[in-house]
Design brief:
With 407 residues, the chain is α/β, with parallel strands linked by helices. The protein is 27% helix and 22% strand. The longest helix is centred in the middle third of the chain and has 21 residues. It binds iron/sulfur cluster. Iron/sulfur cluster binds next to α7.
Length: 407
């Protein structure tokens, strides 16, 4: 990679969380901020959303770790959806939430009135792709940050950040909509679940056969899918830092605790390395990118950062999944060289295990010995949600995660 400085303000790493456990995990593994959804007014209503008590606890945990909580209030509300919103926004302010992510001018106006100290972040659902739109939102609705549309090219992000009077946030990883986010009614049509009120059934990822009247258009009766590749903008992190983007966002409030830990940790290491060194060798970059992709099970692409004509590259040629690592479980305790693992997937004695720990490089070891809850020695652990005691040749901590390379 060419020599160039990327030293402006260090960007925030913003992680998704569908529940309190995932929120704490994201913070433990290096997120500067976490975005969550309450039980109302949020897209992804099927993600296990936070009660008021959960939001309070998330804020307290974030505060004690120097992190921040953003709350999505990003449905496209109809009149009947606004009941109780004023009081909800007031409560979010009281709990110590830093920002709400909103997709409606009504919610933004209400938020300024109800909870003046809350930052207002304009959601990607508003599809901001130019500086004039950002300026309009800042002047008219007093927003603090604009989450840019995922469809922006790198040069468009550069122009908006240069001319924009508010902070900018961009997506760096995760699922993409084949339609502009929030401008899709495919799920509504196919399932009567409204994508813009939190009900997206991901109908774009289904497999279809296409007909024009009686004539089948799909060749050899192969299925057609609009499923998109996942974004992985690792190659653009340095440029985005140089541009001065305020926040790097990871998509995925429906994702597992393992995914959140793995992706957050990998980007944390990449951002810190770039921040410290300014540039990375090709070899170093490949190593960081490989780490990011260990948690991916879909094909990835660089997103629209690479230019307008990249749009055609978003589609999967098929809907194959590429799971390359298996999540084996989470450490619940460690003492005298033995870790107790709450298991998720089967594994065997003799296998090489990779350990993910907050603020540490990943470490590996081979399982020399393991026992079940009755103290019996095992060759194979077959079942999920069992507590298996495993000899580990280095200290691990509660919350560390074990995984195995399956390739
Ligand atoms: S159906 Fe697909 S394109 Fe439409 S909102 Fe859902 S994920 Fe996005």
């Amino acid at each position: 990679m060419a020599e160039r400085s990327c030293r402006r303000n260090k960007p925030e790493l913003l992680a998704p969380a569908g529940d309190l456990a995932r929120c704490k995990t994201a913070i433990d593994f290096g997120a500067d901020a976490v975005y969550i959804g309450g039980q109302h007014y949020s897209l992804r209503s099927r993600a296990s959303n936070f009660t008021d008590e959960d939001i309070k606890e998330a804020c307290a945990y974030a505060k004690s770790h120097g992190a921040a909580i953003h709350v999505t209030v990003n449905t496209i509300p109809h009149d009947g959806d606004l009941d109780g919103l004023y009081d909800y926004l007031k409560r979010l302010e009281e709990y110590g939430v830093t920002a709400v992510i909103a997709a409606s001018p009504t919610v933004m106006r209400l938020c300024r009135k109800a909870a003046p100290s809350l930052q207002i972040h304009c959601s990607t659902q508003m599809s901001v792709t130019n500086a004039q739109a950002a300026r309009f939102l800042q002047e008219e609705l007093d927003i603090d940050r604009v989450v840019l549309a995922r469809e922006c090219t790198l040069e468009e992000v550069r122009a908006i950040a240069a001319e924009c009077p508010v902070d900018t946030e961009v997506f760096i990883h995760g699922g993409m909509c084949v339609n502009y986010s929030g401008r899709c009614t495919l799920s509504n049509r196919m399932t009567k679940r409204d994508a813009n009120r939190g009900g997206c059934a991901q109908s774009c990822r289904w497999q279809y056969r296409l007909f024009q009247g009686e004539e089948e258009l799909t060749e050899n009766r192969e299925f057609f899918t609009m499923g998109s590749k996942d974004l992985c903008a690792a190659a653009y992190i340095r440029d985005l830092m140089e541009i001065g983007v305020t926040s790097f966002k990871i998509e995925g409030r429906m994702k597992t605790e393992y995914y959140v830990a793995s992706i957050v940790s990998a980007y944390r290491h990449l951002i810190d390395a770039l921040w410290q060194k300014g540039t990375l060798s090709e070899e170093e970059f490949i190593r960081y990118r490989k780490e990011i992709l260990k948690a991916e099970n879909r094909n990835t692409w660089d997103g629209f950062y690479q230019g307008d004509d990249a749009g055609s590259l978003i589609f999967h040629a098929n809907s194959d999944v590429n799971v390359n690592h298996d999540y084996l479980g989470r450490v619940v305790s460690y003492e005298n060289g033995s870790a107790v693992l709450l298991t998720r997937n089967p594994f065997e004695k003799g296998e090489e295990i990779e350990v993910l720990s907050p603020n540490k490089e990943n470490r590996t070891f081979r399982i020399a010995s393991m026992r079940n809850e009755d103290g019996e020695y095992l060759d194979v652990s077959r079942h999920p949600m069992r507590k298996i005691t495993i000899q580990v040749p280095f200290a691990v901590c509660e919350g560390d995660l074990f995984r195995r390379n399956r390739i």
